[in-house]
What we know:
Blueprint: E1 7-8, H1 26-35, E2 37-41, E3 46-48, E4 56-62, E5 65-70, E6 76-82, H2 89-96, E7 104-107, E8 111-117, H3 118-127, H4 129-155, H5 158-169, E9 175-176, H6 180-187, H7 191-203, E10 207-210, E11 213-216, H8 219-226
Antiparallel strand pairs: 1-2, 2-8, 3-7, 4-8, 5-6, 5-7, 9-11, 10-11
Helix pairs in contact: 3-4, 5-8, 6-7
Amino acid sequence: MARAEAKLARIGELDEPHLLSPALDEATKAALARRGAPLRAAAGAWIFRQGLPCEAYPIVVSGRIRVQKTGANGREITLYRVGPGETCVITTACLMRDAAYDAEAIAETDVTAKVLPKADFRELLASSASFRDFVFRTFSARLASLLARIEEVAFERIDRRLAQRLLDAVGEDGAIAATHRELAVELGTAREVVSRKLKDFERSGWIELHRGGVRLLQPEALRRIVHDEAAS
């Protein structure tokens, strides 16, 4: 199913400076409100795609964006998410080196954002200490989380990571609305690996599998896996 593209909102929407990050000083917020274009994206819309030129710097006002990478074999991995008051480290890197996007981003929920054109981004970066501090602080924080993500995918056992993901995603009723493929994208592994581990969990009586989701029956058993008390 084709995804829609994010759209610029009508002029006058999202132009209140108080909606932007509290880490920015008032003068910088006013400059962003004046120079930035408001953007609205419905859940499921593309924010950017791999290979396209990077022309603007977005700051999320509301909603959540998922940034992911797709390999040559078609496998996908979620790199990180961008929420209110945050921005995208891949966009920052692409703007700084004048390069095309090497990943893609999708609106997980309805999203509103301020989008600063490349020329204005560079001008504010040079002239505003508040903006410069915001850009580099968010860049370094996201880089640290990406390194942690690489370590997790490279070195953590898949059963432990899957158990943690199920515990993080479970609702009050014990249900998790996620397909095997969606869980595989989150974990950076093959769908077949996730399906095999879920079957192991089900045979142990810890979960119940159903079409399009999972139900937790024994969350304590999964917590024992996460805390390395049960090996697999």
